[in-house]
Amino acid sequence: MPAIRPIHTAIRAAVATSADTWYSIEGHRGLWLRARRGMPKTWVFRSVVGGTARKIVLGRYPEMDFDAARRAMDELKGLSAKGSNPIEARRARKRAELDAADAAKSADVLRPTLSTLAKRYLGVFVSERRRSVGTKRSSVEERRVFTKHVEPLLGATKIEDIRSRDIAAMRDAIASPSEQRKAIAVVRALLSHAKSDGLIEQNPALGVKAPQSGTRDRVLTDDELRTLWNGISAPIEGIRTAMLDALRLQLLTAQRIGEVLALKWTDIDRDDQTWLVPASVAKNGRENLVPLSPIAYSIVQAQEPGKAWVFPAHRVSPMSSSAFAQLVERIRLSLRMDDFTSHDLRRTAATRMAGLGVLPHVVEAILNHASGTVSGVAAIYNRHSYAAEKKRALLAWSREIERIAQDRPKGSVTAIRARESSASRR
Asked: Which of its termini does the chain have fewer beta carbons within 10 Å around, N or C?
């Protein structure tokens, strides 16, 4: 049998000269390199125990280099010197390793870390639970919040070791109050599932206070609306026209920006010029029929067909609301406007429609609010969609935007309260 020197070049150059070739290693009695055609080379320890020849595979080359193979052989030689059967000793060690892995796996199931729990529940049960109670937070958003805020501080902690003070410390490490609320909500939901599965006795997140949600009342003035509308009706360097059009459509329809970004061509009825927001997209899980004014419909028609979404993002469609918020900030800076968010545009549209004489329950219907002026038992039996009223209101609002954009005097748009009141009496 050929012998080779214990150097990398010689070991790498060793090949099978027959179906099965054994190379001894100079200066290291008992260590062999086995080369077989079509198979990886392996390190083998050959010894004689009680008059019986033994062969023990140490590992594959190159995953196991020479030094690692030598150390493994020396360990087995030490066992032989003590009178132990190295094969049995190795088998016992393997069994112990497997037992330890099984024990760790059992511990991972019975005493999981928060990260382990997140893999089991996050984006599945957590989202489903929120959807069942009328909250529409996506699994992508939940994972983002967990990965960014929760996992670095609490991910490796066993859930039974998590205390309220730990969650409070995580909260205090987050700068944004809104992100604090989201992080606490995700931890609270995860630990609630752990409690229901009997993994913990109490949910420590229930006692942690989240910062109160600040109520914004920002409504854009005529001058701001004029600057914004005329600004996003023209190209802005570095921002795709489709995203500017998405913002215009939100202002015209008063819908949530997430619903605008999720708009698909199949949601548009070209004959009636309406947009049906599916229940699966709507935040409250209720579909909403949105009549499109001529301006709004022309914005939709101007988009490039061929993709599922009307306003597709570059990489992932639809674009997330958080990503769009960064885009709105760039638009604001480009137009040198005071701080505003896309949700402020929805509030502005609702407020301005009320100022045009649109009745409150019609505004609520446009906004697709689950509660409002018509609620309780009345809401259950009142299935009127207010389609005609919504169409008149959104048409009046689009004309008001045109008036403001062109800086025409007030009075160019006629209030519609009297027309709706007389229609309801009929």
From this structure: C
C-alpha dist (Å) from residue 275 to 249, 270, 340: 11, 9, 26
Same domain, 242 and 326: yes
Last residue of a domain, one of 169, 184, 207: 207
Cis before 318? omega within 30: yes
Its pTM surpasses 0.70? no
Q: What is the DSSP letter of 219?
A: -
Whether residue 213 is contained in a domain is answered as: no
C-alpha 342/C-alpha 364 separation (Å) is: 18
Q: Kind and range of the H or E element at 57? A: strand 52-60
| 214 located within any domain | no
Distance CA(237)–CA(231), nearest Å, equals 11
If you ran DSSP here, which 8-state letter would residue 220 be given? -
Q: Do 288 and 417 sit in the same domain of this protein?
A: yes
pLDDT digits (tens, 9 = 90+) for 131-160: 444 444 556 778 889 999 999 999 999 999
Taking the C-alpha atoms of residue 39 and residue 46, their distance in angstroms, rounded to an integer, is 20
Token pair 């409504």 in the structure block, residue: 219
Give the bridge partners for 33, in sequence order: 23, 43
Tens of pLDDT, residue by residue over 187-236, are 998 998 888 888 898 999 988 998 876 667 889 999 999 999 999 999 99
Please tell me whether residues 322 and 415 are part of one structural domain.
Answer: yes
Number of domains making up the chain: 3
